[in-house]
Design brief:
23% of the residues lie in helices and 32% in strands. By secondary structure, the protein is an alpha+beta fold. The protein folds into two domains: 4-242, 3-Layer(aba) Sandwich (Rossmann fold), CATH 3.40.50.300; 249-362, Beta Barrel (OB fold (Dihydrolipoamide Acetyltransferase, E2P)), CATH 2.40.50.140. The structure holds adenosine-5'-triphosphate (ATP). The site of adenosine-5'-triphosphate has 11 residues, from helix 1.
């Protein structure tokens, strides 16, 4: 049993600085769960609480069927991999990996068996006699992961393990971590990152934590779900604006009326759009925000129903696709991600249409209206 349950967890640093608010969360047996959010939202703190490295909190944390709030980190059957690798500089790779097992008085031949097996899995067998300073960043991170593997933990905890690697190596190590998850299907994994691509690629479940202007929500869960659920069905403006690159376009609008096909809204530019959601609780004229992802805006020849016409302020070409920047987004310019060269240039007027079911509508509190 490696299910992890957090119930009503709150944590403050000092009396007036809440960093984690009311977190209720279950991570199932063998699940790969990613804590995602902007810098400072509290994701590392939450991970360290599961590890036992942060105490002094209210609520309860359970690993398997054991409440661990008072259990020492070494006795939680978790292994943590840190961003800065945290290798002992004066020990060889072998000794770094064996260290925890020696402390736990594991038999010598069992230590050797486990270290060699982990080294084989991570393809670092030729490095076992090297010192950490003679390793590349990616090799160091493999050793750090190896040190976690040899402990045969029930739970792997990763705190931004790839942040110190260059972009290409990050992509490579990401796929190695996915392989690690497949090799240890019984172990649950929690992985902290602020990189949405890593989260989307690795997670069975994403926990997106709030941070930002609204201090009352800081450190609370904005949404939990499968990566594509968060992408296609964001519950609020924060989630909608965090996932996706470039991020979702937001347009100020007013609610007109609920129709059989959905909620009719009018944009600042005067265009009317029907979004297939239930807006019947809204008053006529209520302010709403229309959300459309850049990749869902397709060029059309002429204005018509469900279209948007704006002046092009700039175009960026990337070969396979282009970003067309349009006047009139809130607060940033609108972006359409279109195939090829986009077919327009700065100064042109261009018209785009999004499939109705790719349009999102948010009320004045930033909550998504249901599709
Ligand atoms: P990042 O992606 O930048 O690492 P994070 O989401 O992991 O951010 P945390 O490291 O959990 O965020 O920190 C959450 C907040 O708590 C931050 O504002 C941070 O400055 C603060 N904080 C973290 N540790 C301490 C501490 N020991 N004492 C006081 N404040 C702290």
């Amino acid at each position: 049993m490696t299910k992890i349950t957090l119930s009503g967890v709150n944590k403050s640093f000092g009396a007036n600085f809440p960093v984690i608010r009311g977190v209720d969360l279950t991570i199932d047996d063998g699940e790969f769960c990613v804590f995602l959010g902007p810098s400072g939202c509290g994701k590392s703190t939450l991970l360290r609480m599961v590890a036992g490295l942060e105490t002094a909190y209210t609520g309860q944390i359970q690993i398997g069927d054991r409440v661990v709030d008072k259990v020492e980190p070494a006795d939680r059957e978790v292994a943590m991999v840190f961003q800065n690798y945290a290798l002992y500089p004066h020990m060889t790779v072998y000794d770094n990996m064996a260290f925890g097992l020696r402390q736990a008085k594991t038999a010598k031949d069992e230590i050797e068996r486990r270290v060699k097996e982990a080294a084989r899995i991570l393809q670092i067998e030729p490095l076992l006699d090297r010192m950490p300073k003679a390793l590349s960043g990616g090799q160091r991170q493999r050793v750090a992961i190896g040190r976690a593997i040899v402990r045969q933990p029930k739970v792997f905890l990763f705190d931004e393990p790839l942040s110190n690697l260059d972009a290409a190596l990050r992509v490579h190590m990401r796929s190695e971590i996915a392989t690690l998850h497949r090799n240890f299907p019984a172990a649950s994994m929690i992985y902290v990152t602020h990189d949405q691509t890593e989260a989307m690629a690795l997670a069975d479940k994403i926990v997106l934590l709030h941070a930002g202007k609204d201090m009352l929500k800081h450190g609370s869960i904005a949404q939990v779900g499968k990566p594509l659920d968060l992408y296609h069905r964001p519950r609020n403006l924060f989630v909608a604006g965090f996932l996706g690159s470039p991020t979702m376009n937001f347009l100020e609008a007013s609610f007109v009326a609920q129709e059989p096909a959905g909620a009719r809204v009018v944009l600042k530019g005067g265009e009317e759009i029907v979004v297939p959601v239930d807006g019947s609780a809204l008053a006529s004229g209520a302010p709403v925000t229309l959300g459309v992802r850049p990749e869902h805006l397709a060029p059309v020849a002429a204005p018509g129903a469900q279209t948007l016409t704006r002046k092009v302020s700039a175009v960026e070409h990337f070969g396979e696709y282009s970003f067309v920047y349009l006047d009139g987004g809130t607060p940033a310019p609108l972006i359409a991600k279109v195939p090829g060269d986009g077919g327009v240039k700065a100064g042109d007027s261009a018209t785009y249409q999004a499939p109705a079911d790719c349009c999102h509508l948010f009320d004045a509190d930033g909550l998504a209206l249901n599709h």
